[in-house]
Design brief:
mainly alpha; endoplasmic reticulum; 15 helices; membrane
Length: 381
């Protein structure tokens, strides 16, 4: 309901999240026969894209999301060259979201049912509580696979993130149809978010050490998030700009570009430093960094980016999130939904990280927190 509500608000003249009664769509706007064809076809494109296998803790994956993004880009350019009305995605947003949500429910039911035939060591620690509703939501099986094809890994980054980019492009093309050319605000939003998605898919293997892959089961929470929430709420800024164009000065654009650049630099450098340290702590780029030992034999970074705050990657993420919203101006709250939601999400995730690390590292974690007192925002939080 939240996804559909936000899309309706973004397409309404007022674009007010506080409007009452809210802008409700007609039933005709919720369905289009083209929508399920596009959703299933989009997933099929990524299923048949080239794969390369790697192994991580005895689980086989096939990461090639960046290849899929490039193939998708070529296909989209061919369609545009043939005159395909990509701007029609603006009218299809609601039907596409309905189909993605329905697919999320059906896929989650499949995952829940098949988990009862999975061996005990394949279940997620937190997803086997005996409460059917909770286990369905959080996911019983950790990394369900069909043969060597990992379903969670595939859904985590590929169709949803690439779909987000395609929706953004559709919004840009719709603006071109209406006004003759894309606005500077629309170009910035598309460029920033394309960079973010391309970076995520280029560094796809880094997700193997994230909480989603290592700890969380694959249930409705992640399925819905990957296939429906990400592409249809993360693209709200572009959808908003179609109906609510914003004038942006060159100086304002330069400041926003600088903010996004600073956020991306912090995000990428801190993640790269962490991944390099995990892969090879003797590498010249991390060998001289200060660390503290733990009872598990692992060492914790207390200098470099990870000596600034405990989650510098979250700091960079939030700076970028703000930069994505600023091109939409300050007259509406809707474009800032993402940065507000993402702040809550990352603070909650940081609290989960904190609990798990304290349980895992014990006194060493307390020592680390003394060295690095700030969690996300230096001198603030």
């Amino acid at each position: 309901m939240t996804v559909l509500f936000l899309i309706c608000v973004s397409q309404s003249p007022e674009a007010s999240v506080l409007q009452w009664p809210p802008p409700l769509p007609t039933t005709a706007r919720l369905w289009d026969l083209l929508a399920p064809v596009l959703v299933l076809g989009w997933i099929a494109v990524h299923l048949i894209s080239p794969v390369r296998a790697i192994t991580f803790t005895s689980v086989c994956f096939s990461p090639s999301g960046f290849h899929g993004l490039c193939i998708s880009g070529v296909l989209l350019m061919m369609l545009l060259g043939l005159g395909a009305p990509l701007g029609y995605l603006f009218e299809l947003l609601l039907p596409l979201a309905v189909c993605a949500i329905a697919l999320s429910f059906l896929f989650s039911v499949y995952l829940y049912m098949r988990s009862f035939w999975a061996p005990p060591d394949a279940l997620a620690l937190g997803g086997n509580t005996g409460s059917p509703l909770y286990d369905f939501f959080i996911g019983r099986e950790l990394n369900p696979r069909i043969g060597n094809f990992d379903l969670k890994y595939f859904c985590e980054l590929r169709p949803g993130l690439s779909g987000w980019v395609v929706i953004n492009l559709g919004m840009l093309m719709r603006e071109v149809e209406i006004r003759g050319s894309p606005s500077l605000s629309m170009i910035l939003v598309n460029s920033f978010q394309l960079l973010y998605v391309a970076d995520a898919l280029w560094n796809e293997e880094a997700i193997l050490t994230t909480m989603d892959i290592v700890h969380d089961g694959f249930g409705f929470m992640l399925v819905f998030g990957d296939l429906a929430w990400v592409p249809f709420t993360y693209s709200l800024q572009a959808a908003f700009l179609v109906m609510h164009p914003q004038a942006l000065s060159v100086l304002g654009a330069a400041i926003i570009v600088a903010l996004n650049g600073i956020g991306y630099y912090i995000f990428r450098k801190s993640n790269s430093q962490k991944n390099q340290f995990r892969q090879d702590p003797t590498h010249s780029s991390v060998a001289r960094l200060e660390t503290i030992g733990t009872a598990t034999g692992k060492r914790l970074l207390v200098s470099g980016w990870w000596g600034l705050v405990r989650h510098p990657n979250y700091l960079g993420d939030l700076l970028m999130a703000l930069a994505w919203s600023l091109p939409c101006g300050f007259s509406h709250l809707l474009p800032y939904f993402y940065v507000i939601y993402f702040t809550v999400l990352l603070i909650h995730r940081e609290a989960r990280d904190e609990r798990q690390c304290r349980a895992k590292y014990g006194l060493a974690w307390d020592t680390y927190c003394q060295h690095v007192p700030y969690r996300i925002f230096p001198y603030i939080y």
